[in-house]
């Protein structure tokens, strides 16, 4: 059964997509080390957010 995402879940997905799009568009070779670290940390955080949404959606319904 497929349920729509909550507004909070959809926002997490939208932010992750936006950040991933920006990272893909960036010229990584021209970014200094500090900005690369910030980019990686932001993407790690977004991945964590998306995995939380997956866990919520995949969780069995309460009894």
Question: In words, what does this structure look like?
Answer:
- It is a single chain.
- The protein is an all-alpha fold.
- It has a domain at 29-58.
- The chain contains two helices and no strands.
- The protein has helices at residues 7-25, 33-58.
- The longest helix is centred in the C-terminal third of the chain and has 26 residues, at 33-58.
- It is elongated, with a radius of gyration of 15 Å.
- The model has no long low-confidence stretch (mean pLDDT 92).
Give the secondary structure arrangement, pairings included.
Blueprint: H1 7-25, H2 33-58
Helix pairs in contact: 1-2
How large a portion of the residues is in β-strands, by DSSP E? under 5%
Largest sheet at a glance?
none
**Overall pLDDT confidence:** 92
Global morphology: elongated
Helix content: over 70%
Structural class: mainly alpha
Number of helices: 2
Cα separation of the termini: 16 Å
Low-confidence stretches: none
Report the count of strand segments.
Answer: 0
Please trace the helix and strand order, writing H or E for each element.
HH
- The radius of gyration computed from the alpha-carbon positions, rounded to a whole number of angstroms, is 15 Å
